[in-house]
Amino acid sequence: MEAPSDLVSRLVLYRSNAFWVCHKPAGMPLQPDKTGDRSLLEWVGQYAHRRLYPVHRLDRPVSGLVILARTKTAAAALSAAFQAQEVEKIYLAVTAKAPDPAEGTLTHFLRSLDHQNKAILTDGTHPDDRRAVLHYRTVAASDRYFLLELRTEGGRFHQIRAQLAAIGCPIKGDVKYGARRGNPDRSIHLHAWKLRFAHPISGEPMAFEAPLPVDVVWQALGASLARDED
Questions:
Q1: What CATH number labels 4-229?
Q2: Taking residues 119-132, what's their average pLDDT?
Q3: What is the average pLDDT across 207-216?
Q4: What's the predicted TM-score (pTM) here?
Q5: Does residue 59 carry a catalytic annotation?
Q6: Where are the domains of the chain?
Q7: 31-36-38 Cα angle (round to 5)
Q8: How far apart are CA 119 and CA 98, in angstroms?
Q9: Annotated catalytic residue, options 6, 37, 59, 228
């Protein structure tokens, strides 16, 4: 088994007295679950020699940025910032179909079905229905795939996965939401790419970016994205 210090050096991107920013690999659970697989929270908490507090969610098959607070005070402040939509979250997703139009905003109502671990689109009349807004932009393409940059409002359960599926553009590998086939490692091609927010203690602007997964599709589309940003 890999030594925790070696693993954590790859998982942790930033450390402060208030919080740590981590890069969760696809397939690793954020918190302990019924599978018993070692979670990001357990790996990093063991290294930190203290309890850490996740302040937002990231699905197991998704890769990217996660904030773990080191104190209850920081956790409360960061959680409040997420709830108030004061944290800018930017994701990347790969789809096999191009959205039409190439850039736009999707607005739906979603309801979580706990027994299916899934979100469904609804008409918004049920008390459990929640409004979800997703801004998307096509930023790169290959012969077979399209790379979308995504910004969410609301942070609903499985929001990106359900809303892209609703327009016929399920995320690569996401068979739960209509992809034709899964990825061999059971990941999906959704990546929590960038976070921007105010430091919960000092108020200093903070910005983080997670490198793309080491994968042929991600790397090919990422090269196109890099040229587009230049």
A1: 3.30.2350.10
A2: 93
A3: 94
A4: 0.93
A5: yes
A6: 4-229
A7: 55
A8: 22
A9: 59
